[in-house]
Write a structure and sequence with these properties.
20 helices; nine-stranded mixed beta sheet; 441 residues; Spore Coat Polysaccharide Biosynthesis Protein SpsA, Chain A; 3 domains
Length: 441
C-alpha cells in the first residue's frame, strides 16, 4: 500500500437509494438485505420521487420506517433519476460519510457486500472506486449467470475516453470515496447515468477497480430502468426507454461526445487533451486512437470505438441503422453474414455460367471477373475481421470461397497455375492478417 494511504481508514458508508413508485415487496427485500450487512457502520438515505404515503402502510416496510439508520426523504416534486441520486448523495455528504454506495430499489445485497467493498477500497486508496459482480435474479429465481458476463468486456486499466465509450460499471455495485462527490457534487445533465459519471470521476483520480466476485443479486423485470438487453429479449420484454433513446449509431455517438465535452471541463486533464475532448473533430481523433490502441488486444472496445466514430460523422439516421434494427429482430439462429456470403457465391456462379452462353465474352474476361469478385469479397471479409474480430469462422468461409472460385475457373478452361492462384488469393489475405496478429501479440 502506498505510504500516503496508511492514514486513510474509511468506515462510515452512506447508501444512496433513489426511489420512484417502488414495488413494496422488492423494496422491503432490498432494505432487509442492507439491514443484515456484516459491516454495520452505514446509513441509508432514501429519497422518494413519489409520495411516501403510497407505501408507508405496507407491513413489510414498517420495520425500516422505524429504523433510524434508514432516513426517508420525500421530494416536493419529481427530480428524475439523475437529480434524485444527486440529492441523496449530497444529503449523505452533509452527514459526514466516508464512502458512497449507490443502491437501487429492487435488487438484493449479499451479506458481505459492504464489508468486502470497504476492504477493497481501503487497499486501493483515497479517491478511488470499486465495483463488484452480481448474480441475476429473474422471476424471483437466482440464476448462475453473472452480470459481468454481459457488461465487462475489458479487463484492466481503462482510460477516461475508453470509459466514456464503453460504460461497464453498474450503480448498485459501486462504492467510492465520498470526497469525489465533494469535489464534483453535480451530476451533469449531459450524463443521463449517475453511476457512469462517477466512474469517470474516479478514473480521473484514484482509479476504478473491479471486485471479481458476486456480492449482490441484480433483479431483472419488465419495469427495469435500464436492465440487460439480452436478458430482456430472452424474457420477451421490450427495450427500456433509455435504451431506446440512444439505440441508434448517431444518437449514441453524440451522447458520448457530449459526455466527453463535459468531462473536459470538469475532470483534471492536460489542456491539450481537454481541447481534443471538447471538439467533435478532436473527439473523433481520440476514437480513432482508441481503435488503434485496442485493435489487437480488445475486439469489443475497438469495435465500439469504430461505431462511435461512424455515428459521429453521420448527419442523419442512415440506412445502415435501419439494417441494424432489422438484423436485431432476426432469430439468432440466422447467421446473416454467412447467409449473405453463400448467396453471393451462388450469384457469382450463376453469373459466370450465364456469361458462357454469350458468344462475345471470352474465357479470359470471365476469369478476370471471377478473380475481381473474389478479391473484393476476400478484402471485405478480412477487413471486417481486421477491424472488429467478429467473424470466428472466417477461415472456413475463405477456404470454401477459394475452392468454389477455382472450380469455376477450371470449368471455364483456366490452366492449373491460374486455378491454384485463384484459390490461394483469399487464403493469402487471411494468412497475412494472422501473421500480423501473431507479431503484435
Amino acid at each position: 500500500m502506498p505510504q500516503g494511504n496508511v492514514a486513510w481508514q474509511p468506515s462510515l458508508v452512506g447508501i444512496a437509494l433513489a426511489a420512484y413508485q417502488p414495488n413494496p415487496v422488492w423494496l422491503a427485500e432490498q432494505l432487509a438485505s442492507i439491514a443484515t450487512q456484516a459491516h454495520t457502520e452505514w446509513i441509508c438515505m432514501i429519497t422518494l420521487d413519489s409520495p411516501l404515503q403510497e407505501i408507508s402502510s405496507v407491513p413489510d416496510l414498517s420495520p425500516f420506517l422505524q429504523d433510524e439508520r434508514f432516513i426517508w426523504v420525500e421530494n416536493p416534486e419529481r427530480l428524475g433519476l439523475r437529480s434524485n441520486f444527486q440529492k441523496a448523495t449530497q444529503l449523505l455528504i452533509a452527514r459526514g460519510v466516508d464512502l458512497i454506495a449507490f443502491c437501487d430499489q429492487d435488487d438484493v445485497w449479499l451479506p458481505e457486500k459492504i464489508a468486502e467493498s470497504v476492504a477493497a477500497i481501503k487497499a486501493r486508496g483515497p479517491l478511488s472506486m470499486v465495483y463488484c459482480d452480481a448474480y441475476l435474479l429473474v422471476d424471483d429465481a437466482t440464476r448462475p449467470d453473472r452480470l459481468h458476463e454481459y457488461t465487462i468486456k475489458t479487463d484492466g486499466k481503462m482510460s477516461i475516453a475508453e470509459r466514456i465509450i464503453q460504460p461497464q460499471v453498474n450503480g448498485f455495485c459501486e462504492v467510492f470515496d465520498a470526497s469525489l462527490a465533494k469535489i464534483h457534487p453535480e451530476i451533469p445533465v449531459e450524463s443521463p447515468d449517475h453511476d457512469h459519471w462517477y466512474s469517470l470521476v474516479a478514473a480521473a483520480y484514484g482509479g476504478v477497480h473491479r471486485i471479481d466476485k458476486p456480492l449482490a443479486l441484480y433483479r431483472q423485470h419488465a419495469g427495469n430502468t435500464i436492465g440487460i438487453s439480452m436478458v430482456r429479449a430472452q424474457q420477451g420484454w421490450d427495450k427500456t426507454e433509455p435504451l431506446k433513446r440512444y439505440s441508434t449509431l448517431r444518437e449514441n455517438a453524440h451522447l458520448r461526445a457530449s459526455i466527453a465535452r463535459r468531462a473536459s471541463k470538469e475532470l483534471p486533464m492536460s489542456k491539450g487533451l481537454a481541447l481534443f475532448y471538447r471538439h467533435s473533430a478532436g473527439w473523433l481523433l481520440i476514437l480513432l486512437a482508441v481503435m488503434g490502441r485496442r485493435l489487437f488486444s480488445d475486439q469489443f472496445l475497438a469495435a465500439n470505438a469504430y461505431r462511435k466514430a461512424w455515428g459521429l460523422i453521420l448527419l442523419e439516421s442512415s440506412q445502415r441503422e435501419v439494417v441494424q434494427q432489422v438484423r436485431k429482430r432476426l432469430p439468432k439462429q440466422i447467421k446473416v453474414v454467412r447467409t449473405a456470403l453463400a448467396a453471393g457465391a451462388l450469384l457469382l456462379a450463376a453469373s459466370a455460367l450465364a456469361a458462357t452462353q454469350l458468344q462475345d465474352i471470352s474465357v479470359a474476361v470471365i476469369a478476370t471477373f471471377v478473380l475481381v469478385c473474389l478479391l473484393a469479397v476476400s478484402l471485405v471479409i478480412t477487413g471486417l475481421r481486421y477491424l472488429q474480430h467478429q467473424m470466428p469462422h472466417t477461415l472456413v468461409l475463405l477456404v470454401g470461397l477459394g475452392a468454389l472460385s477455382s472450380l469455376l475457373a477450371q470449368l471455364f478452361g483456366a490452366n492449373v497455375w491460374s486455378t491454384i492462384a485463384i484459390a490461394a488469393v483469399p487464403m493469402a489475405a487471411n494468412v497475412l492478417y494472422r501473421l500480423r496478429w501473431m507479431k503484435r501479440t
